[in-house]
Specification:
Strand order of the largest sheet: 2-1-3-4
CATH class of the largest domain: Mainly Alpha
Radius of gyration: 17 Å
Shape: globular
Largest sheet: 4 strands, mixed
Structural class: alpha+beta
CATH topology of the largest domain: Glutathione S-transferase Yfyf (Class Pi), Chain A, domain 2
Bound molecules: glutathione
Oligomer: single chain
Distance between the termini: 28 Å
Length: 212
């Protein structure tokens, strides 16, 4: 039987697009890993126990032996360093990858994640349509940037799939309505299909645990 202590572990949960970026990077790079379920919807990330795992109070967190690492972009870079997969071929490509990963963290995933949370997971009596619409409008601007980039290029940075693509797609396979309809964005649609055609690709709900 396999020694489970050697496996990388990822604190994550199915609804978390930020966790998906880390999980999908590992899965596509053929890394053996194990999920540790984070009960986000019952406030686990706010507990002192969780803060001792990640002082930032967020998922995902990667555990590799004694090392714990948070921030999906840092985890992605860590997996690139470990496996040699999905990084840049040149220093200039490396910078380009970083540029898109930072953009994703600020303008794609944070807006997509917040909009999806406000519109679907927040209790209905606490939802504000005005706030949701504001986020959707901002998110739409980011989708336009992404669509435009993918009009000119198959992948976001470099000639091949990189962690930049795996970052920016993090929220775009989820079924809940949050202002993104694939058919409205032909280049994003084509790119999402190209990513999901990669060997080892899994939908976030098939890759990470959810509370029954
Ligand atoms: N920039 C961080 C964002 C992580 C993040 O916001 N994670 C969410 C779940 S998708 C979280 O744990 N939020 C807890 C909170 O904000 O209280 C990353 O890319 O890892």
């Amino acid at each position: 039987m396999e020694n489970q202590d050697n496996l990388l572990k990822l604190y994550c949960f199915g609804e978390s697009g930020n966790s998906y970026k880390a999980a999908l990077t590992m899965e596509l790079a053929d890394v053996l890993w194990q999920p540790i379920f984070v009960d986000f919807f019952n406030g686990e990330t706010r507990t002192p126990e969780y803060r001792s795992i990640n002082a930032m109070g967020e998922a995902p967190v990667l555990v590799d032996g004694k090392r714990k690492l948070s921030q999906s972009g840092a985890i992605q870079k860590y997996i690139v360093a470990k496996t040699g997969r999905f990084g840049g071929q040149t220093p200039s490509e490396e910078i380009e990858i970083l540029r898109w990963v930072f953009w994703d963290n600020h303008k794609m995933s944070s807006l997509a994640g917040t909009t999806r949370f406000l519109a679907n997971f927040l209790p209905e009596d606490l939802r504000s349509q005005e706030v949701i619409d504001w986020h959707k409008a901002r998110f739409r601007v980011s989708l336009k940037v992404l669509e435009k980039r993918l009009q000119d290029s198959a992948w976001l940075a470099g000639q091949n799939l990189t962690i930049a693509d795996i970052a920016c797609c993090g929220y775009l396979y989820y079924p809940e309505p949050f202002g993104f309809k694939r058919k409205e964005w032909p280049c994003i649609d084509r790119w999402l299909t190209a990513i999901s055609n990669q060997k080892g690709w899994k939908h976030p709900y098939d890759l990470m645990p959810r509370k029954p």
